[in-house]
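User: Sequence recovery, please. Input:
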């Protein structure tokens, strides 16, 4: 059941009415309704994996009591059981075939023939997200930041809340669980803000991302026959496609949660206005990058144990982040590229120079230096996105090689109109809106009603294509 489908809108309306008009007198009944509808929502994707979701939820709920033990040996044992359980689930369903195939290739290079048994199952939707919910809950109990909850219904809602179940944001127990356990009353202002945010997310997805997808697909399929300028346009268009697609999903999820009285964590803060790669990762997929920072980078020692260890930890976190996105070398290469881009900032102690204020904080326009920094950062991110979009590393290398060679042989193409130039009409409104919102993401609720009518009309005429979201594959 896609967010950008009429089925979801009918589903949402039905749940909303039951939640506020039938079960509004009982918090427990509201939570039971949310849990039941979340499992129904997930079952619409694949009912065969409902048992896996329930098992994962039940195990981490149980492990939480063991991790909360004052006996640190016992607590650590249950912590490792949770880690093994969650990574085991990911390993079997997401990574087993990848490792089996790679070992087969390794052995064959040594002259040893193998015939590994491969799993012929679909990747369960949202598996990377709900396992990370469970792991963060257990980690926080072990670190003393969260108490083990005794209400399984409340914990089940935390893990499987349908707006964030299949593609995040990745919530923290300390942020979402108190909201699940607290009585909620209907807030008209919050609900209106949620509807506006959902509409803006729909615009990003069905108007911007889906139309750019058609252009991107055409260029990438025919990349050997296109000019370097066209290939550059294709890479830029994909940068905005994936941003519109994923941030659009996050906006719809956050807006949907507001309709039920929940406030989810922000997942994007205008990343393409970043002045260096460190700032980009503080603004892109925030819930994932902060998860890896808190539960992997810092426990490994972070940057507190010297530059050599900091460099090693940086590569670990970026490579793992890449591998989290998919069992393919192209994602590892993508993560490695970002690690290399981050490394100079780390070595020069400049990785936190833009940790607070946004670009042009007190000005309407950036300085020339800020503009060049943003262009350079966006350019690096865009070239790395080619590896993310390409079917494999060889394809990505060829794409970039053709693009560079074409510019060298035919520099005059810069004076021509490339294929895909129409993508600018989808990109510019998004860039302009993000620039306006960059200092206050809640400014969206202050927009004139005529703006929402226009957005609603554009969404309506592009709605119903049922194009899936990119991050559903992770």
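Assistant: Recovered sequence (474 residues):
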């Amino acid at each position: 059941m896609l967010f950008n489908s009429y089925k979801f809108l009918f589903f949402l309306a039905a749940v909303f009415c039951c939640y506020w008009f039938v079960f509004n007198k009982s918090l427990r009944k509201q939570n039971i309704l949310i849990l039941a509808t979340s499992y129904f929502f997930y079952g619409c994707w694949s009912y065969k994996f409902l048992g896996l979701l329930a098992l994962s939820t039940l195990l981490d709920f149980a492990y939480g009591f063991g991790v909360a033990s004052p006996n640190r040996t016992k607590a650590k044992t249950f912590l490792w059981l949770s880690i093994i359980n969650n990574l085991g689930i990911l390993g079997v369903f997401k990574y087993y075939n990848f490792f089996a195939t790679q070992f087969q290739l390794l052995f064959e290079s040594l002259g040893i023939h193998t015939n590994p048994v491969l799993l012929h199952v679909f990747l369960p939707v949202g598996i990377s997200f709900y396992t990370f919910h469970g792991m963060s809950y257990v980690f926080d109990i072990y670190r003393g930041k969260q108490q083990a909850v005794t209400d399984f219904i409340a914990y089940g809602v935390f893990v499987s809340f349908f707006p964030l179940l299949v593609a995040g944001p990745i919530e923290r127990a300390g942020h979402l669980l108190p909201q699940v356990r607290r009585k909620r009353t209907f807030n008209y202002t919050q609900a209106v803000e949620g509807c506006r945010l959902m509409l803006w997310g729909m615009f990003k997805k069905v108007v911007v991302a889906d139309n750019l997808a058609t252009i991107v697909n055409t260029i990438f399929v025919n990349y050997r026959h296109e000019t370097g300028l066209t290939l550059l346009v294709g890479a830029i268009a994909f940068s905005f496609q994936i941003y519109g697609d994923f941030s659009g999903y996050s906006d719809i999820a956050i807006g949907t949660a507001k309709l039920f009285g929940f406030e989810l964590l922000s997942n994007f803060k205008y990343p393409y206005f970043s002045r260096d790669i460190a700032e980009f990762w503080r603004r892109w997929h925030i819930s994932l990058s902060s998860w890896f920072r808190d539960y992997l980078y810092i426990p490994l020692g972070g940057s507190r144990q010297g530059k050599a260890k900091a460099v090693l930890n940086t590569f670990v976190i970026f490579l793992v982040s890449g591998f989290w996105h998919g069992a393919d070398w192209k994602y590892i290469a993508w993560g490695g590229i970002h690690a290399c881009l981050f490394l100079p900032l780390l070595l020069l102690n400049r990785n936190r120079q833009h940790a607070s204020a946004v670009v042009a904080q007190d000005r309407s326009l950036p300085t020339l230096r800020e503009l060049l920094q943003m262009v350079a950062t966006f350019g690096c991110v865009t070239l790395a996105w080619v590896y993310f979009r390409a079917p494999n590393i060889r394809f990505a290398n060829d794409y970039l090689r053709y693009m560079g060679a074409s510019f060298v042989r035919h520099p005059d193409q810069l004076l021509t109109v490339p294929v895909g130039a129409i993508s600018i009409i989808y990109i510019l409104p998004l860039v302009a809106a993000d620039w306006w919102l960059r200092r206050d993401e809640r400014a969206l609720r202050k927009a004139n009603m005529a703006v929402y009518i226009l957005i609603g009309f554009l969404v309506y005429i592009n709605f119903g294509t049922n194009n899936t979201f990119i991050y559903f594959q992770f």
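Residues 25-185 form one domain.
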